[in-house]
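During the reporting period the student researcher (J.K.) took over the structure-prediction task from the postdoctoral fellow and processed the backlog of single-chain submissions. One of the processed entries is reproduced below for the supervisory committee.
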Amino acid sequence: MTVLPKPAPGAPALRIRDLRKTYDNGVQALKGVSLDVQPGDFYALLGPNGAGKSTLIGIVSSLVNKSAGEVSVSGIDLATRRDEAMRQIGLVPQEINFNLFEKPLDILVNYAGFYGVPRAQALVRAEEELRSAFLWDKAKVMSRTLSGGMKRRLMIARAMMTRPRLLILDEPTAGVDIEIRRGMWSTLREINAAGTTIILTTHYLEEAENLCRNLAIIDRGVIVEQGPMKALLAKLDVEGFLLDVEGALPAALPAIEGAALSAIDDHTLDLDMPRAMDLNRVFAALGEAGIRVRSMRTKSNRLEELFVRLTTAGVGAADGTAQPEPEPVA
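J.K. obtained the following structure tokens:
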């Protein structure tokens, strides 16, 4: 993996100040968004459908015209030095957008040429990126013959051809199975470890919790929460556990004041309890009921819980208040 040059000292990889966008139909997609993404970070941008994520990414990648505000990439102002700023960015959109009748090697070389990379240098880079993406053996086959996961990896390899300081991934694992998704996680960790700052949007909250160190949650055009992943998750006052028990569960489970206990199956309990509650009290109540806990593990839905609490996710569909985000057009 190629080590990328470091950004200017003190300059965020991405700096956004009071960013606003109002579409011609009057929809306010962004209402004063401000955030900083530091160099080398792995940053999650989360939000329900229509929250403003696509508009924000569209503005940063110069596909959408802002209404007001400032955007800079590695200290380079997007409005006044657009071409220079765009050379710092690699974008992996959600939809497959390369020519399926081109070969992967040609796709990468032609993309690099569009950004002024000499062909000889582009060929070297293309081999390097295809090998990193485990696609070198597919370099000269028609891209339409690639699997869905291979196509996703090819899009990441293409974005890396310009050696971007900032890689933006819009739902990169959408529609792929869990095995392919976890393989892509490994690829993204390697890219990040080599020095590339990554911004990830995803609907797989487990993905964000596993990969990202910091996050921002956007809802209805405003940032409702942002900061370190661990610090935000720590704000939850409820913890969830899965308890594996020995033998079969009794017909009636004990009532534990302040905690919610339910059976998933004959050998597994689902426990939700306040963070301040002493687990020993729970184990004591279970022991009195003849239930012996063999092992326990934390449920992996903490970020999902935080997400639902802070946003209108799951609400708009029921009450009609959710507004679809306009397509990202200028």
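The committee noted the following: Residues 14-226 form a domain with the Rossmann fold fold (CATH 3.40.50.300).
J.K. will present the remaining backlog at the next meeting.
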